[in-house]
Fold each of these.
Amino acid sequence: MEAERTLDTGQYVDQEKIIYSERNSNPDSHNPEMLGRNWRSESVKIPDNHGRNWRVTLALLFALILIPSVSEAARKCGTVRPPPPKRARIDKDLQKFRMARTSRAVSARTPQSVNVSVYFHEINADGRSLVSDTQITNQISIMNSGFAASPFKFVLIRTDHTTNSAWFHMTPGSAAERAAKAALGIPQAKGILHLYSVSPGQGLLGWATFPWDYWKYPSDSGVVLLYSSLPGGSAAPYNLGATATHEVGHWTGLYHTFQNGCTKVSDSIDDTPAERNPASGCPSDLDSCLQKRFPGLDPVHNYMDYTDDACMNQFTAEQIQRMSDICLQYRGL
Ligand SMILES: [Ca+2]
Ligand SMILES: [Zn+2]
């Protein structure tokens, strides 16, 4: 299990790694299309009096300019992305699945026509519940607004409260996570959404499992949330409930919009413009992939970016088509 888990948090861990990813231009070195792209696009060759190549200096300066915009407070998601070969296979299988559907003339699905049962598991350290029933109800409403154009409607079936300090501080891939999910994630079914509220530390707001991993790790399936990210929580500017919408986006098969940076494959979605890095705050007119073949401004309002909750308000048509198809394929939804 651990072999497949590599945290998709490299760009946010510390300043050294930010510089590293800028200098090397590519956290995903398995993708040959990305190698060296930042060097070519962002650095200019200006020989100085000594005839020295300034590219390294300029690239470092560029990285330093970026650092202040990525603070400790930046959104951080611990969802583990698949390695490139697996990702390619998932996309190929999706293509086959779509072709089979087209031949049977299956039409697009009606928005909110499929109920998704949600079980909410509140975990705390000292017997005092950290989220109220109203917050949970509001969280489900926020998710339903975010997914309003999708086939899915989230229906809260049950809430439970558990006191367990180790589970409360679970981190992605930990023994505590496995134990908590095995004990609480019942009933276990591929189409049931288990939400867990905890305090994971590491600056994480949450993480999710992808649909295609259900068959191998059924009890792992679900979404873990920082308890204070729920609507009305204290994790401003991430306390309006968009973290759950983002993580459930992963749970239905979506990647980050900035995945793979300025590449054609990017997030496997054509109508989200390619994006070099996660955006934070709520920038306007941000355009991080300047080449002509990557038109469009960065999708900073997309739920699958890293901006503030108040900035996020959309899934694109292709994202909705992908989650609809992937959930039919792998979750029976
Ligand atoms: Ca895209
Ligand atoms: Zn994420």
Amino acid sequence: MQIFNTLTRKKEEFVPNEPGKVKMYTCGPTVYHFAHIGNLRSYICEDVLEKLLRFSGYDVKRVMNITDVGHLSSDADTGEDKMLSGAKREHKSVMEIAKYYTDAFFSDFAKLNIKMPDVVEPATNCIPEFIHMIEVLLEKGYAYKAGENIYFDTSKLDKYYVFGNMSEEDLQVGVREDVTEDTNKRNKNDFVLWFTKSKFEDQALKWPSPWGVGYPGWHIECSCISMKHLGERMDIHCGGIDNMFPHHTNEIAQSEAFVGHKWCNYWFHVHHLNDETGKMSKSKGEFLTVSLLEEKGYDPIAYRFFVLQSHYRKPLTFSYEALGQAADTYKKLKDRVLRIPEEGSIDEAAVKEWHDKFAEIVGNDVNTAMGITLLYDVLKADVNGATKRAIIADYDTVLGLRLLTEAAAEAPAAEGEDVAEIEALIAERTAAKKAKDFAKADAIRDQLLGMGIVLEDTREGVKWKRA
Ligand SMILES: [Zn+2]
């Protein structure tokens, strides 16, 4: 299998530290708000990478953090703690905000058919580990105290700009909005390991430390949480491309200073999802979430399909028109899969041959678009229905498009003696809605509910299923 490694800026053959085993880490969300679909593009692509590794025979252990403290509004340690601003916005406690948005995040995972990482660890669980790492960095001379905070000293490294493609301009710190540069820093790229003298009087979460009561910086989380569960050598670290600097650069700096050797061999970065006005952000335009797509009648898996149609290393532009096209293509593809007759017995040799083909083609730097093309090739292949279904089920363990599973759940709804009655009631309800007789429409919905029938109003019309 080959993946593009941001560290070397080359596509490389993937070779794990330990044969057959992959240690993989993903930067998790800062749980102060809903994830927008641009963030979720990264998680979908990382999910495919993980599933592809498993498909290729690796035993994968994947770890993800949840940032519930220490991430300021600028990634370069300036501005306000995001969790605190979320809590203020919603008049709740920081922990209530963390719980609410963590649940919302994993609900999106389920809707998008993203596998849960093997380990999910909130930052606030690991304060002793952070303190230990900072103590070692101080002992080794990689950290210093200034203005009562502890900073990492980037001038102590032979090479700080590890990703090698950044200009001085890219490395400017404190460029965002109205934030002011931290004058305690000895070098402009130094970063906070521990905030003791908080700029924010009302910082909600604080812990005692050898340097006084305070809280950890953001970057230290990922280094500690990954080492806690994966040890001192990791195979693949994933994230969105905007995490490359300063976050991943700083993770590497402190981790390698701490362990004294190379820490992670492969860096996998997913590019931006843009909207038609440019980079998607929370501050402008409509805030695009999975729930919003659902409200508009789109199946979240159609969004997954939309993402998989393009390569993770290219920017992708979102529009409802483009999503609508993807949704139509997805629906047609799924219909064709559903119509494959259940005939013959599975030809295991053919399944193996198609499996290897997928592993080679999609294994060439996670080429999901080619994976979708292969699905069409399978549909046309000269093998019996049972074999086609088996190959598609095999591919879908990576693509996660629920091409066969959801079909099985939908099929029974079309059967049963009362179908005609149900359809007639639905038609009557649609007519009532059209005539703006909402009381009647609601009464029919309740009547159907009493019969165990659940209605769903979608872009394509009313769908129903048995509860
Ligand atoms: Zn991280």
